[in-house]
Amino acid sequence: MTNDRRKGGNLVMKTPLQRKASWLMPAPLFYLLVSSLIYFSPYVLSSFDFIRDSISSRINTSYDQETGLVVLFALVSILIGMFLYPSKQVNFSTKKQVNFESIALTILLLGTGAYTLLTPELYLANKSDVLGSTNRIHLLFYSLCSLGVLFSVLSNWKNQLVVLMLSGGGLLLILYIGHRSAIAITVLSLSYLVFRNIPVRKIPIRYFLMAIGILIFLAAYKSIYIAVKLGAFDLARERLLNGGFIEAALIGLEQFVIFLHLDYVVSNDYTPECSNLWLIPVSLIPFSNLVFDGSACTFTDQIKPMFFEQFSGGVGANIWAEFFANFGYIGIPMLVLTIGLITLTIERVINRISSPALTAGLIVSIMHFTFYIQRKELLGAFISGKRVIIAALLVFIAGFIIKEITSKRLIHFDYPAFFR
Predict the structure, then answer these.
(1) Nearest to 368 by CA among 345, 342, 349
(2) Range with the lowest mean pLDDT among 214-228, 231-245, 294-308?
(3) Phi/psi of residue 244, each to 5°?
(4) In a domain, 79, yes or no
(5) Which residues contact 332 (CB under 8 A, 6 or more apart)?
(6) Strand 56-59 and strand 5-7: pairing?
(7) How confident is the model at residue 253 (pLDDT cuts 50, 70, 90)?
(8) Listed residue (64, 70, 35, 41) closest to 331, CA to CA
(9) 177, 190, 208, 355: most buried by Cβ count inside 10 Å?
(10) What region does 313 belong to: left with phi over 0, alpha with psi -120 to 50, or beta?
(11) How far is CA 358 from the centre of its chain?
(12) Angle, nearest 10°, between helix axes 181-195 and 28-45?
């Protein structure tokens, strides 16, 4: 009876529930639960929703009672999924070609980072102009920065200071450009890497407080990032201090608008005319979007003209609204099962590889499927996950090429100390 133990000389029998206690570890579905609680929070707060025009304003909002039932059903489905999720720990050991991948990652970060720095359109105040000027190289740089931080931790960060500094600096640059998600996903990925095999109750409370602090900072920064890009630091300081820091943070929270998707779908019994879910298998093929137009039938494009005409900017998406609109109540556990199977497959792949670049890419992809999926459609989550895995594969292949070149002594190369 390997699951039993002795305490004070007496044999203590564990109940089946106690033997399953590892379900309280921060496995992937734990992140889905936490993100769902955050994005479902407007139903509890329900009295307000912030938007941004030329003036900050407050809109009173009341939600349909059935929306609350859908929220409860989703949370229960996640909890059941967490309990059923295999309790095996994940092996994050990395051994192969660390030095070679470190060199490859450094070269790629320098190249894509220089290209990003030399793209002036990214530093315009209008976000539409920024998004319109963003291409695959910029997106590769964004992915590489998150990968670099995870790679450094996996490979002993003290020996990867160059990669860590380039990646960290890149994340700050991305934040300045106006994208907060890169830092958020990196922090979440680090928490998964550090705490995945530790019961939640044993994680020091200070780390939860740090997570809340980072969330508040990123939320507040959204209300001032345009002023920062324009160099109007006095305006940014005035908005934070005189306007109220908490109010500035609430303005930056997207959860209120995102939650409205679900409420509108439920209260209006909305069913989309078409769906792009069939494109998910096709989306796994690199550059498949050049052949198949995934934007032709998105859930967001169908719902925005009907329910969000008053919003001039982007309204994001809501994964729960997408599945409820397409499949009804059965779509809720269907989504949890889909995410559970995807992340379980990714974790099993992590257990079988030893490349720090590939491991880092797979960890970041888990966050796209569990945390950041709340504001996406499922196809969008697959595209984001595929993008970061392709970036990891690029580092892995480049590292392999460098290894082959140096091992065959086609060139003589003496590794600098910081790559060892």
Answers:
(1) 342
(2) 231-245
(3) 95, 120
(4) yes
(5) 70, 73, 74, 77, 320, 323, 324
(6) unpaired
(7) low
(8) 70
(9) 355
(10) beta
(11) 17
(12) 130
Domain that holds residue 359: 25-410
Do the domain assignments include residue 20? no
Per DSSP, the three-state class of 25 is coil
The position carrying tokens 């998707």 is: 261
Ramachandran category for residue 25: left, alpha or beta (phi over 0 → left; psi -120 to 50 → alpha): beta
Classify residue 145 by burial, with Cβ atoms within 10 Å: 0-12, 13-18, 19+: buried
Q: Residues with Cβ < 8 Å from 24, sequence gap 6 or more?
A: 30, 82, 199, 200, 201
In a domain, 19, yes or no: no
Give all strands (DSSP E) within 14-170, no chain letters.
49-52, 56-59
Percent of the chain with pLDDT over 90: 44
For 123, 144, 175, 253, 391, the CA distances from 170, given in Å and listed in that order, are: 14, 9, 9, 23, 15
Nearest to 384 by CA among 190, 222, 185, 188: 185
Q: Note whether 173 and 117 are within 8 A (CB).
A: yes
Q: Is residue 345 part of a domain?
A: yes
Q: Please, which residues have CB within 8 angstroms of residue 177's CB and are 6 or more apart in sequence?
A: 122, 123, 130
State how far the alpha carbon of 306 is from the alpha carbons of 192, 264, 272, 385, 394, in Å. Answer: 38, 9, 11, 29, 42
